[in-house]
Amino acid sequence: MGSSSSNLNTIPNSQELMQETGFSAAHLLRLYERFEFLDKDNKGHLRPEDFEAVQELSTNPIGDIIIGSFFSPGQETVDFPSFVRILAHFRPAEKNRTRDGAQPEPANSSTGKLKFAFQLYDRDRDGKISREELLQVLRAMLEMQVTEEQLESMAERAIQEADLDEDDAISFDEFKKSLEKVNIDHKMSIHFMK
Amino acid sequence: MCCWPSLFLSNSRPILSCCPCPFMAALWTLSLVLSGCLFACLALNPPQLYDLPPSLGSNGSRSGLSVDRPMVLRVFSVDYHHVQAPFEIVLWIMLASLAKLGFHWSGRVPAVVPESCVLIMVGLLVGGVIYGVRHSAPPTLSADAFFLFLLPPIVLDAGYFLPGRLFFENLGTILWYALLGTLWNVLGIGLSLYGVCLLAPSSLGDISLLHCLLFGSLIAAVDPVAVLSVFQEMQVNEQLHILVFGESLLNDAVTVVLYKLFESFLRLPSVTGLDVLLGGCRVVLVGLGGLFVGLFFGLLAALTSRFASRAQVIAPLFVFLYSYLSYLTSEMLHLSGITAIVTCAVTMKQYVEANVSERSNASIQYFLKMWSSVSETLIFIFLGVSTIQDIHMWSWPFVCSTLLLCLVWRATGVLLLTAVVNKLRRNTVTFRDQFIIAYGGLRGAICFSLVFLIDDFPKKRLFITTTIVVILFTVFVQGMTIKPLVELLDVKRKKRALPTVSEEIHSRLIDHLLAGIEDVVGYWGQHYWKDKFEQFNKKYLRRFLIGEERQARSSILRVYQELKRREQRGDEEAPPAVDPRPTSRPLLPEEMESIRHILSRNLQHFNNKQTPAYSRHTLHQDVTTDRTRKPLQRHLSLGERRRYNTITHWPQGENGEFSETHRGRAGLSRSHTVCSISPRRTLSDSSASTQTQPVDPKRAEEDQVSPQQQSPAERALKKQLSFILENENQQ
């Protein structure tokens, strides 16, 4: 895993990052090692090609979408803080968080996680999942297994079920509502990253 | 036998044509004749204990001593004694094999009745015949015969065909179930039975606690072969399959160790706390010791196979010899032989397969299957035979409570363990899976053999009877009803809360997302150690253990295998019988159903890379000629992803006619379904990967280049390939 410095000081802004994301020092270090491992040319930031080098990711049907989600729109590189911030979404949520309205919603709460998933669909970040965006994702997931007509009817059906305000697109709240039966915290957490 | 209720048959399976009558008649006549021979032989000779090597000490006394001075030169004479032992053994095996043959020819029966049932029934029949003729005890199994000759092939077969990658990914859960679950069962059953004995002191008073624990340890051994064969029919994802399979394998090891422990406790004059502690240490030592012995012999075998290129014909022999050696060595040192042999098989598999020629690989696989099949058959036949004899002792409370307790303890054990383990796994073990694991705890060969080996004590016959009853009950009742019950459960579950389409879609997306993120992060729990091991493997082990000339080839081949594996993963069985009618806005219920089906299967296939279920009785028919042409065909197959093992069922010509239309694929799916009904369709990951060996590098490259002209999906494939090749070059 590359020559790892076992010192937290080599990571810039480590304290702020830990504060912001909630990762412990040990985890942050491991993430940094992983970041360095992925960053084969030691550029200090990651590009899409570095992500594509991860073998299993290339066979993931939505691999490209996942890689794209790491990069903010318009940006071509991911530096370490952004990397960590994205991964912070997948920490298990703290159970006893006080519902303080003033604090911003942490990344790893249910809402934060859902927001991340929502943005996988909503590439143009307009706050709604249009039919085309849904179709794109469906097509990627199901690839060769269904006909175009079936894809369309699936997308149609999904929108019909979720779309409560009849604007032919799924907003974030509608998205959230359609997943209310699913235990998002359990499903979208990588448990060892506590 | 043809009028089973339709509940037992799944609707999607087309009806097998009835076996041609003349063959059946011939088969049955032949087997009748053979059974006649067998019973005649047995009738003419007093019974004896069978040891499988033909040299029987007891026989020597009979032959050759009868001084028979003929007056005249005999032209024709029969000397049965001379060949008695091997002759009878061969007849037994022949009978069993013919029964199997008849079983597979007999129409719909294989779908409903597990093979073990049939074998037991044949055994019962033969036992009845023998009993009728001789009114005395039939031949029985000796301890040595079982442990030294009948058990190793079965375990070796299971170990060799273990899907390695999947096994190690789920190792934690498997160990959890196997070790703790078995311990739970053993202690639970043992202690409760002791309680029952205390409650009925008149009849069961002389069974001590240790005896109950001993009995508990042997009755907890689970043999899932019948269940695994039923898995073909049920929609079983790989995770469940490997859990059941792995659990049974390790469970056997634990059971035998505990059994021997309790037996040695029984031989001690008294058992103190210190003894228990020492016993615990011994269990650990035995397990680990077996592991190391297995590792040692596995590596040795791998090394030997490296040099076997000049004597390919005997190369398979090394596999068997080393495995058996590992078993015998650990038995000699009183370590766990089962662990040793399984470890040996798992260790040497990848190196041996790389080193040894295609045909040798095929021979190894076939021999393994053959021997394990024969072993198991013999054991079940003996089970049937032993059932019909005088020495049974019946006790209603004991037998019934044993049956009940087995079920209850297994169910509670599975429920509790799963509750804990689900918190740590992302792919939870669902209730349906839990039911299958619990209900599929069939008892089989090991229980039966272990019970015969108990040192004699007054109630031994009771134990034997109870064990036989439990085995018969589980194999017949549970084995035959598990499939309908699971289907019932599926139906019920579907009726309750149907997830909406959007929920399904989004859940699938999230699952894919999580898998991807885990890969990005390099999930330390699994991938970290796996990667570390792979690095170690590549740097040291492979270089050392795989022959020089094969290393270079193997890297391209591995690329190819990797590619194929990924195609398999992206592969999907075409959705069964989906009607490609253009649909209008409102979706019909069937279509909803099929869509749901598609979504769920899509995830199943992605998350759990597909390996067909293990079966002791069959080997996938992939080991045929024309292997070199197959890879070429696959890539030329017009953007279609098909499961590798479906190809063998189709003649060459069909490749051309499948166009990219989805109608074609629907047709594909139907013929695939036809081909896949029989329980014979099995494939192990290893044999899939071995098929590519003869493909020379040039052709492999051609194959890899040809998909370029295909659809974007294939282009993506090429992209992956280019990076793989790059990756390989860099290393």
From TrEMBL, chain A:
User: Where the protein is mainly located, per its record?
Assistant: membrane
Q: Name one GO molecular function term.
A: calcium ion binding
Q: Which CDD domains match?
A: EFh
Which InterPro entries does this entry report, sorted A to Z?
Answer: Calcineurin_B_homologous, EF-hand-dom_pair, EF_Hand_1_Ca_BS, EF_hand_dom
Q: Name one GO biological process term.
A: protein transport
Give UniProt keywords alphabetically.
Calcium, Cell membrane, Cytoplasm, Lipoprotein, Membrane, Metal-binding, Myristate, Nucleus, Phosphoprotein, Protein transport, Repeat, Transport
Q: Which Gene3D superfamilies match?
A: EF-hand
Domain EF-hand as annotated: residue spans: 109-144, 150-185
- Subcellular location(s) of the protein: Cell membrane; Cytoplasm; Nucleus
User: For this UniProt entry, what's an example GO CC term?
Assistant: cytoplasm
Which PANTHER family would you find in this protein's record?
EG:114D9.1 PROTEIN-RELATED
Member of which family?
A: Belongs to the calcineurin regulatory subunit family. CHP subfamily.
Q: What is this protein called?
A: Calcineurin-like EF-hand protein 2
Q: Can you name the source organism? A: Kryptolebias marmoratus (Mangrove killifish)
